[in-house]
Amino acid sequence: MIYSADLVPGTVTLVGGGPGDPGLLTVAGFEAVRQADVILYDRLAPTAIMDENPQAERIPVGKVPRGPYVPQERTNELLIEHAKAGRKVVRLKGGDSFVFGRGGEEWQACAAAGVPVCIIPGVTSCVAGPELMGVPLTHRHMVQGFTVVSGHVAPGDTRSELDWAQIAKTGTTLVILMGVAHIGDIATRLMDGGLAGDTPVAIIADASLPTQRSLTTTLEKAAEDMAEAEINPPAITVVGEVPRVYPGRRPLPVGGVLPGLDLDGTQAHVPSDH
After folding, report:
1. Most buried residue among 81, 102, 170, 228 by CB atoms closer than 10 A?
2. Does the annotation count 178 as an active-site position?
3. What would the pLDDT profile of 90-135 be if each residue is shown by its tens digit?
4. Candidate list 21, 88, 133, 178, residue with the active-site label
């Protein structure tokens, strides 16, 4: 079976746009954008791809941190209104719609209104960002899993649902999205939970874009070093042993290969036993 992106009038298609570079949008996502009558897009979506469909109506529904935003309830209403008007609606997001993208909420709203929904997964930034820096989230004989959390709500805030002390004890790589503003408090909570101050940390900002920047530091110095380097959102923070794998140089651009890989494939790596 080949995943089809043939859009149907009166439906909403949730498209995960990938980490930022339009070239990392999936083939199905690209086709959906090309066929749409109307596109509701986020601030971090690969907006340049919309130029492939100049006839489509474009509606910005992004949220700027501490700035202008379209309430989620209004976004839900717009999706339903345009679908019920018989239009082919695409909801274009950054990353994957179901990883801190509120795709589940939009699906629920459409379903409650009787609007059919199609879902096209995207390359999630929580994996792609570190990968584009050369940092794996798992590494044989080092770590066997990873945990992804949002740092949007500060530790100690009454809205926080995370137990940072317990997260510190998982023994997995920790990936923090939307955590730049609170990285100092987060680091303190993780160290209070048992992580050493010299635990490696890697940060990648604007992953996959021409403005991509990266930084390696330690947990106890993360806030200071990020401020000194003027790391701003969107950025992904990786905490754990895997930043030690980072070769100290940025991988080649999309379409290239990571340092250390053999171009002819004869000796790329030792085969894994699991």
Report:
1. 102
2. yes
3. 999 999 999 999 999 999 999 999 999 999 999 999 999 999 999 9
4. 178
**Rounded Cα distance, 148 and 115, in Å:** 31
d(CA 53, CA 38): 10
Instruction: Please indicate, yes or no, if residue 111 is contained in any of the structural domains.
Output: yes
Task: DSSP letter for 62, please.
Answer: -
Per the CB < 8 A criterion, the answer to whether 14 and 97 are in contact is: yes
Give the model's pLDDT for residue 181.
95
In total, how many domains does the chain have?
A: 2
pLDDT at residue 210 is higher than 80: yes
Query: Which two structure tokens, joined as six digits, stand for 40?
Result: 């509701």
- For 227, what's the count of Cα atoms within 13 Å in the CB-facing half-sphere? 8
What does each C-alpha distance from 71 to 49, 96, 110, 181, 232 come to in angstroms? 24, 20, 16, 22, 23
Instruction: Give exposure, 143-166, as e/b (b: 16+ Cβ within 10 Å).
Output: beebebbebbeebeeeebeeebee
CATH number at residue 83: 3.40.1010.10
- Give catalytic status of residue 221 as yes or no: no
Reply yes or no on whether 42 is catalytic.
yes
Range of the domain at 81: 12-123
Residues 103 and 158 in one domain: no
Active-site hit among 63, 185, 191, 225: 63
Identify the active-site residue in 42, 50, 88, 93. 42
Q: What are 144-178's pLDDT values in tens digits?
A: 999 999 999 999 899 999 999 999 999 999 999 99
Pair of tokens at residue 156: 């100690």
Give the global pTM.
0.88
